[in-house]
Sequence to fold (186 residues):
Amino acid sequence: MLHDGGWPVNVISGLVDLGRAEAAALTILTSPGYSRPADPRRLPAHGDHVQTWGAEVAFEMGDSYIGLEHAFLAMIRRRETVPARALAGLADLNALEAAVLEAKNAPGGGPPEDAVFLPKGQEMNGPLRRAIIDALPEGTTFGFNGGGDGDERTWMHVIGPSDSSNPVLTREVLNTALASLKPPPP
Fold:
């Protein structure tokens, strides 16, 4: 996460030196007798849906996506993880969490510039979300508004490495997902 960047790392960079954070993590990982912590409790999977790190945090927060902020918060909330232990020696973990939450909850001012609107009447339901996940290129995820924040139309956008986005890719993923939901012609 330190190398890939993303907005949570940018937010905490004002509170902790990222080079020192990496050095602290490497010190922990290479120390004699180091053993990794037990795996976190996983949410039960539904069908072929696999839960990823941060899913519990996203669910707790009521978010319709799993982002870097959720993964980061999951890491530092489990105080025995290497990221939490490394950062704890350099900064107040509660202050880091508060900074990420404050940045996340700052007013966004509507859909992102790269947002693509679903066709009128199309809901962001379970089958469409599954089809979108199947259509995503490796290394990407997606976000959507769920249509519940005063905007009648639902929008989505595909998010790539380092929070990059591309409306053409988003349209491509949405079209592929929608096409996969339609029954084949007789």
